Fold these 4 entries.
Entry 1:
Amino acid sequence: MFNRKAKSTIDSLIGSSTSIQGDVHFKGGLRIDGHVKGNVVAEVGQTSVLVISESAKVEGEVRVAHLVVNGEIAGNVFSSELLELQPKARITGDVNYKALEMHSGALVSGKLTHDQNVIEPVLKLAMTQSTQSVA
């Protein structure tokens, strides 16, 4: 249905018995089974995957390229590539996405906004300008 690139691997895990208070910044792949009270942000310009499992809860903003949710997020969500909402997904907050896959049973309490350039609009503009000056 969607043109998906090669799937990224999960590099890090926040286990089900783990609770973090504070922001989490990561590269690559991250799976959360525990509780994070803070923002979860992937490095801009890098391929990133975040998996929020059925037992997980994130209280804060989430910014990532590819997001798979089957748990709970209380905060705004920004997905620059693909957002997958699995059957037990619960999001309370506004959702900005480029592509959306939503399964029956998933719930979003907030505004859904389709946006082609969710996270990186400035980067694409800078690349266009440098190309013109070279030619």
Entry 2:
Amino acid sequence: METEMPESTVTIKGQTTLPRDVRAALQLHPGDRVRYMILDGGEVRIARSRSVMQLPGLLQGATTTCASLTDIEDAIAKGATGL
């Protein structure tokens, strides 16, 4: 749900300051890095970069089941045939 569209000015060097609300939404702190995703239609999304060191445990609790090799092969075959 969009409530506001913060703005900032680009300097002659191509620099800008991220508005406070944007920094808060991305939980950014001094020294953090951001990543820009350029989409079709001239839209750009900004996201907080994460180092590889932050990845362990990222998916912890996402699922409690494991797929067998047969389950995986069946899913691939089903996807390939469109069934």
Entry 3:
Amino acid sequence: METKQLGKTGIFVSAIGLGGMPMSIYNRPPESQSIPVIHRALDLGVTFIDTADSYCKDESDKHHNERLIHKALTSYKGDISQVIVATKGGLMRPDGSWTRNGSPEYLRQTIRVSFEALGAAKPIDVWQYHSPDSNYTIEESLAPVKEAVEAGLIRFVGVSNFSVEQIKRSRDVVDIVSVQNQYSPWERQPENDGVLKYCEQEGLTFLPWSPFGGSRRHQNLQDIPAIAQLAKEKGVSVYNIVLAWLRSKSPSVLPIPGASKISSIEDSVQAINVTLSDEELQKIDRAT
């Protein structure tokens, strides 16, 4: 598995990660299906796993995905010493909806629960502020995060759904190693708002969420002629083409495709071997 540095930490992780969200929301698969998916990802050399406290059905189910990942890691027979788990906090799931909560008191509490859900044996590898809450300044919301770093609960910090200005303000409070924003053939804002360029310039890892467009759109990739044609020509899936396209955008990009089936993660890691020419990349750009 190809690797790349996480921010400027000196730590190298797999160039394609695993997103845990599909294993814990809505029509989640049984645990007996999900844990083998995580184990297979590890077998394939995946050493970066993305999760969140809000990857669950509702508030009564909070931290489900974190606990699932911890259970999978502790039951894995191989070496997990190089595995990095990145979680997030700052979203709540009342009745299954998604709401922001950047209250310092709430973030302080959910960081502690995430620490325990992930095993409490070591600091959280990467904790990311899930989405800025306009009811609180970024400085207010990140103050307890800095406290958690100093207290040994968090090793590295990232932000999610942030603009360049917001990232800069975050870095004045605490060191940032990663930025996780939406990026897919249908959502190309990181190219236009300067976030992707900023991450590359500053050595921050960029984690594109919903790289295939999410649960509602991923099946429509076949309907984008340029992507479908390239997949056919190269004998790979349309998902491989999208991951290769994202990776070509910047050396900062580390895709984290979600998976709830072994076949899905097996397919995703194959994108490492897919190379797109400048002409092919332009065809995709023009079609999306």
Entry 4:
Amino acid sequence: MRMCGIRAQLLALGGAAFFVVGCGGEDGATSEKGSAQIFVEAEDTIPNGLAAGMGDEDIQDGWSVTYDHFLVAIGNIRASRSDATETLSAPDVYVLDLKKVPAGGYVVATFEDVSATRWDRFGFDLPNAKPGAKGLGDTAEADVALLVDNGYSLYIAGTLSNGATQKSFRWGLAAGTSYDDCATEDGIPGFAVPAGGTVPVKPTIHGDHWFFNNITAGAEVTARYAQYIADADANGDGETTLDELEQTKAADVFPPDKYSLAGVPIETAYDYVLAQARTLGDYQGDGECPTRKVLP
């Protein structure tokens, strides 16, 4: 039996460490090499908000939404091959301000000199931020501290509008989740590294899932509603807080003729928001990462 040594290559980009681990020859490593650049992009709903209307992407009960803040923690980028022992790993965690996402996205990892073939297993984490998480680009240090100090994976703030009526929200959530087996919208798993070239790989963060009328587990075939947020403002002060969501029974704000919440225990409006926050990680735009696990 051939014993294969482990090859570890440390690459540097902007102070971050990336590892390529594997062995050559019979394990399927190829002689041709290329690169993969991993960058995080924001769905248009984050910088542009959502409009009221009856279109497929609109909120259909009269509300529109704009975001003032949309912060996420992301990291532990990984890829592997089902036909080989090679693995790619970028363990760093970043806090990103997706309202300020640059045109080319936030580059969070670059894997160089890797086998030019299909890496059919790709995953990443949206973890609860811990000390050591770093900001990128125009992400403010205060925003990094906000997530790290509170152990949040996500912080959003914005305003709902319906005519002259407005409701604000500021929600920080410890909704840490891992996403694996990512595939394109066409169901093609992972990514293919071209010989002598670079493939762009795009974890994509969506900004509309808490308006869905179901807990998405695949293709986003759904209507969007926001009335439950307004209804949960129990004291009528114009802001719907997480505490108010926790006090709002799901049966009171999610009518069964509009919502299908089967498969996930949803007792309160907060349960619904938390469950949806664990579905935000998509791939290459509207592709899915169906293997999800809750992170501590």
